[in-house]
From TrEMBL:
This is 2-dehydropantoate 2-reductase. It catalyses: (R)-pantoate + NADP(+) = 2-dehydropantoate + NADPH + H(+). Residues 195-320 form the Ketopantoate reductase C-terminal domain. Pfam families: ApbA (PF02558), ApbA_C (PF08546). It comes from the Eukaryota. GO terms for cellular component: cytoplasm. GO terms for molecular function: 2-dehydropantoate 2-reductase activity. Residues 5-158 form the Ketopantoate reductase N-terminal domain. Catalyzes the NADPH-dependent reduction of ketopantoate into pantoic acid. PANTHER family: 2-DEHYDROPANTOATE 2-REDUCTASE, PROBABLE 2-DEHYDROPANTOATE 2-REDUCTASE. It comes from Hyaloscypha bicolor E. GO terms for biological process: pantothenate biosynthetic process. Its EC number is 1.1.1.169. Keywords: NADP, Oxidoreductase.
């Protein structure tokens, strides 16, 4: 029996990992597309990568919408969600209604904090796996995926206040499939360590991304070379890194990079890469503000902890986004 995998949100990240999973002989990988359905249905995805070369990924099934996936009557072993996490725009757990069966594990490959909760609420008895990736990839044209660099993906079962051997086993199998697809740095984590990885990652994203937008589009490298912005970025990172252990009830592992180390490596890197939040802002798209800023602030607040620097960035950028969207909708009247 092949392992049946469904990708929901086959954009840059989803299509890249799907193309690696599809190389494993025991898998059948299908996708639900949206705007790029026609192109992908006709030609599949073209992937180019400095590590894996250029190749085509033809999904087992390419569905135009969730209904078609339900009508296929396939029992999914894994449903991988790799849409952008925009809980203020849509609850994407709804897409999975009618697709999650007894043996289905839901894998969330999304940035930020608190992305698991809507899925846990809707599917309380399903296995949920939580994944963080540092891959750099983009869909440059419909169906054309450019993998730039890095492959690491960290995956852990989402088990707040519970244990489940089935979830741990499913997690292990999923990581093994990624490794079999030559993602050598796919890593298996426990629930608690994966949440530490999420907090550590948002120390970078919650400092750099909103600051890049609010400083009128400054690149990460240019920001850390500016003395005042350096102080600002370090203080935001330290705020997140010192709040995380209090929320999680355990110190972050020693091997996680300190704020100084992150800033030093960003200082050395003179290439002008833009964080995706800045690209979204420049393209007039919604930013992943809630999962990168709003949720961490609210999760800390529930424990009686404030992150004032993060809160300031969140309040300002949320309002800027609201004003931009209002201006846009008025210009369409
Ligand atoms: N790109 C990176 O380098 C990178 C790195 C690390 C982490 N991440 C994280 O990975 C996640 C995914 O990012 P991404 O860059 O892959 O985004 P992306 O390229 O925009 O891909 C998201 C895809 O989901 C599709 N989608 C959204 N809602 C859908 C729906 N209801 N039904 C079907 N398809 C739907 C979108 O279709 P449409 O084209 O129709 O909108 C798009 O193809 C984000 O949380 C991001 O922060 C990305
Ligand atoms: C998908 O295709 C549509 C229409 O062809 C295009 O406008 C859009 O930018 C594409 N999406 C991505 C993520 O490339
Ligand atoms: C930067 O400022 C210029 C001039 O006001 C504006 O056109 C541009 O959109 C701004 N860029 C960002 C990322 O805010
Ligand atoms: C610096 O960034 C560029 C592109 O953004 C990337 O190609 C390069 O690998 C990075 N270097 C380091 C040391 O991270
Ligand atoms: C998170 O930060 C990394 C490193 O700066 C960047 O490549 C990525 O685009 C950021 N993610 C988002 C959602 O902005």
């Amino acid at each position: 029996m092949p392992i049946k995998i469904l990708i929901v949100g086959a954009g840059a990240v989803g299509a890249f990992y799907a193309s690696r999973l599809a190389l494993v002989p025991s898998t059948q990988v299908s996708v639900i597309c949206r705007s790029n359905y026609t192109v992908v249905h006709a030609n599949g995805f073209s992937i180019s990568s400095p590590k894996y070369g250029s190749y085509t990924f033809t999904p087992h099934h390419t569905f135009a919408n969730p209904r078609q996936a339900i009508d296929s009557k396939i029992k999914w072993d894994y449903i991988v969600v790799s849409t952008k996490a925009l809980p203020d725009v849509s609850d994407d757990s709804e897409i999975l209604e009618g697709l999650v069966g007894d043996g289905t594990s839901i894998v969330l490959v999304q940035n930020g904090l608190g992305v698991e909760e809507p899925y846990l609420k809707r599917f309380p008895s399903a296995i949920i796996l939580s994944a963080v990736t540092i891959v750099s990839a983009a869909q440059t044209e419909p169906g054309i995926i450019k993998h730039n660099r890095w492959t690491r993906i960290s995956v852990g079962p989402y088990l707040p206040g519970s244990t489940s051997w089935a979830a741990i086993e499913s997690n292990k199998r999923f990581v093994q499939l990624l490794q079999a697809g030559e993602i050598e740095d796919a890593e298996e984590y426990s629930h608690s360590k994966l949440q530490m990885v999420r907090w550590h990652k948002i120390a970078i994203n919650a400092s750099m991304n909103p600051s890049a937008v609010l400083s009128n589009g400054t690149t990460n490298n240019a920001m850390v070379l500016d003395p005042e912005l350096y102080i600002h970025l370090k203080a935001v990172m330290d705020e997140v890194l010192s709040t995380a252990p209090k929320v999680l009830g355990t110190p972050l592992p020693k091997e996680f990079a300190t704020s100084e180390a992150i800033l030093a490596s960003t200082q050395k890197n003179t290439s002008g890469s833009k964080p995706s939040m800045l690209l979204d802002w420049e393209n007039g798209k919604r930013m992943e503000l809630e999962v990168i800023l709003g949720n961490p602030i609210r999760i800390a607040r529930e424990k009686g902890l404030e992150m004032p620097r993060l809160q300031t960035l969140y309040a300002l950028l949320r309002k800027a986004q609201e004003n931009r969207d209002q201006a846009k909708s008025q210009s369409h009247l």
